[in-house]
Amino acid sequence: MKFLYLSASVLLLFSACSSKESKKLPILGNREAVEKTVDGKTVVDTVYQTIPEFSFVNQDSNIVTDKTFEGKIYVVDFFFTTCPSICPVMHRNMLKVYEKYKGNPDVMIASHTIDYKHDTPAKLKEYATKMGVEGTQWEFLRGSRDSVYTLAEKHYLVAVGEDKNAPGGYVHQGWFVLVDKDKRLRGAYDGTQADQVDKLMADMDVLLDEYRNGNK
Amino acid sequence: MNTGMETNSPFRSLAVLVMFAFGLASCQNEKDLDYARYYTNGKQLYDANCLNCHASDGAGLRGLIPPLSDTLFLRKNRDRLACIIKHGMNEKIQVNGKEYDQLMPANEQLPDIDIAAIVTYITNSFGNDQGLYDQEEASRDLKKCVE
C-alpha cells in the first residue's frame, strides 16, 4: 500500500514537471467547431477567432497591413497622443516590453490611435520620437474611425469610443492584447498594472518557445 | 548580579530611545504638524491626480512628460505651480535642460487647499526641499494666474 502511494506521488511529480515543460497559452475569443472531410472520414476541427485583414498608416506615413505582422507575435493597444488619463501609464509599461524585445525579429508592437482627427502620422512620429522609440518594430497606427473601432471591439475585444465628457474626449480600455503568429488572441493584460505587464512578458516568452519547439 | 545588569541594558537603552522619540514628537510645533498634514494629503492627491503622467517617482515619461526633479525649475516657479496644477499648461518649458511642449490638462475641480497639499508634496519630494506651501499661499498665488 505504501509503495502504491509512493509511486503515485512520483507519477504526480513527473506529470507536474512535464506539463510545465509544454506550457501553452490558452487561445481566447470565439471559436466554432467545423466538420471537415479528411481522407474520406469526417473530423471535427476547431476554428479560432483570428484578426482579419487591415490596412493603416504608421508614424512614417507608410502603409502597414496585417501582412506586416506575418510571422510575428505582437502586442496591441489603443491610445491617443493627447490622452491625459491612462495612456502615459500604459506606454511607460509598454516601453518595458519594447526594451526587452528590441531587435527581436519575431516580436512587434502595434499602438492604434483612436483620435483619428488629431493624431496624424506627423503627430505620431513626434510622440514616438519623444518616447525614444526608433524604427518600426513598434508601429503607431492611424486609420478611419470605423476601421479602428471595429477592429478594437470586434476583433481585439477592447472597448473604445468617443465621449465628450471624458478627459481628452475619448474613452478606452487599457488592455495589452497578445496575438500569435497565426493571428489568434493568446492573452489580455491590464497595461496600467506593472505586474500584469510582467506577466505579459513571461507569456510572450512562452509563446515564442511554443513556435521554437514547433508544437503549434 | 553583574550578568543580570548586562542582559537588561539593551532594553534600558531602547526605553531611553522611545522616550526620546516621544519627546521629539511633542516638541513638533504647529508648523511641523501642518507640514506633515499637507504632505500626507498631498501624496494621496498626487497619486490620484498626477501619478498617471508624472509617475510615482516623479520621473515623468521620457521626452513627453517632464520630471518633477528639477529643483531649480520648481524653486523659480514656486508661485506659479498652483496655477499650473489648476489650469494646466500649454507652453514650451525647459526642465533639466530638456524641452517639453506637451499640453498639461487642467484640474479645475481641485480646491485651493488640495492644490496647496499637492504643491507641498511635490516641492518636498523627488529631491526637492522647499518646506510648507499652505492654503493661504495657494489662494494668493491662484489670484494671480494668467490664462
Automatic annotation (TrEMBL), chain A:
Cu cation binds at C83, C87, H172. Belongs to the SCO1/2 family. Keywords: Copper, Disulfide bond, Metal-binding. Residues 45-209 form the Thioredoxin domain. Disulfide bonds join C83-C87. CDD domains: SCO. One of its GO terms (molecular function) is metal ion binding. This is SCO family protein. It comes from Pararcticibacter amylolyticus. It comes from the Bacteria.
